[in-house]
Amino acid sequence: MKISTLLNKDSVFCQTVCTSKKGALEKISIIAAEQLNLDAQELFESLIAREKIGSTGVGSGIALPHVKISSDSPATAVFLQCESGIDYDSYDGNKVDILFAIFVPEDLCKEYLAALSEISQKLLDKQFLRQLRSAKTNEKLFELLTL
Question: For the domain bounded by 3-146, which CATH number is listed?
């Protein structure tokens, strides 16, 4: 499963106003619910439950929230570039300004791991991160993420 199969132009958002972890996850849930035709509140509650297990803030200003969804739904992702960093309980203590959320059906867990590996590798590249953070349009972000 490639990043380009998870994202579409309606799930990538640039310079998003994010004031809190909860608020960012709520925005992600609403966007994903529209993409998946699922209930936004249920997605939000799933994201919050996942965060209670352990923060998905992986460091360097990045969070990778992820949850399993029903098997009859397609896998999808939502990308938010926040206008400014938010407290996220990240492992390194830094604020988060990049959120890449993945929603994957239970029967596609192996494919999900491949997608997570791909985005993780990209996000380790400091130049790529600078490009993501400096992008000024949704279209530019989408282009960078799906190259």
Answer: 3.40.930.10
